[in-house]
Amino acid sequence: MSVRQTIKRYTKIISLLRLRPMSFKEIQEEMEKDPDAVEENLTTSIRTMQRDIKAIASIYDIEIKNDLKINKYHIVEDVEDLPSRRLRENFEILNAIRMSRGFGDSLIFEERRSLGTKHMTGLIHAIQSNLYVEFIYEKFWDDSIKKRKVAPISLKESRNRWYLIARDEKDGKVKNFALDRIKNLTIEKDNFVPVHYDVDKEFSQSFGIINGTDEKATEVILSFTPEQGRYIESLPLHHSQSIIVRSKEEIRFKYFIRPTYDFRMEILSYGSKIKVIKPESLQKKIVNELQTTLAQYG
Questions:
Q1: In CATH, what class is 218-295?
Q2: Where are the domains of the chain?
Q3: Cα separation of 14 and 128, whole Å?
Q4: If you compute the radius of gyration of the chain from its CA atoms, what whole number of angstroms results?
């Protein structure tokens, strides 16, 4: 059996057991219903299943055990890290793309410009080797084009875009650069002294990619309509999100976050389905934005 088939089998077992506990027979029956699993011949023996469980625990940090009382396998502990989860999800997407070819509109993608992912391999090499990079950068807001030399620190994803976090050698400040705005990237031969900048810490209280502003993190309370609130519950706006009120009239969430421009734009995108409860300063900014928008139609 190929490595690809083995990974597919691991992925299928994880996906099935995240739905509900299943017996060995039920797992095999579910695989037999999946055209991709049938094509790849992913059904297996109980002995191989036991080996798979050990491998899944080792590779993905997902512990699976068989409850002998009901004779069903279930996930005991799931501490799969984010990179592993994204890798597994992307593998599943690749399988779906392969299966959909030649079948019309069975898989439909959004049309969007290049994400600049062609730069990722080179930038990761530069980050790991502490090598300067130079590139031409086109800003989003004014289409100005400038040459940059930076010390790359990390790559960060935000709202379906990838950004390079780097120290700009022009002024020594740490900035972010959208990969899809980078052109003519070159990796220099000269090294820089490692930049001490904790990306996770610096962005932990931010909504998106805007950072280094004067805004301080504060408690924010947002009220959503029940329908919109359930959607927000399933796809949190920020890792600090917690529910404080659930009723027939509303669902309220509490956050500890910097109310930066991109966070305010996110709030405005929900229209009448959201209301800022706290803080008052954020309320006023949202009201001002709404009044400015209405004035466009005056």
A1: alpha beta
A2: 3-100, 117-195, 218-295
A3: 32
A4: 24
End-to-end alpha-carbon separation of the chain, Å? 68
pLDDT tens column, 72-83? 999 987 766 777
Same fold for the domain at 3-100 and the one at 218-295?
Answer: no
Fold of 117-195: SH3 type barrels. (2.30.30)
* Strands of the chain, DSSP E: 62-67, 72-78, 131-138, 145-158, 161-168, 174-178, 182-191, 218-224, 242-246, 251-257, 274-278
Q: How confident is the model at residue 248 (pLDDT cuts 50, 70, 90)?
A: very high
Residue where the block lists tokens 């512990």: 63
Sign of CA dihedral 138, 140, 143, 144: negative
Query: Tokens for 258?
Result: 């910097």
Three-state DSSP class for 212?
Answer: coil
Enter the tokens of residue 134. Answer: 């130079």
Its pTM stands at 0.67
User: Can you name the residues that pair with 297 across neighbouring β-strands?
Assistant: none
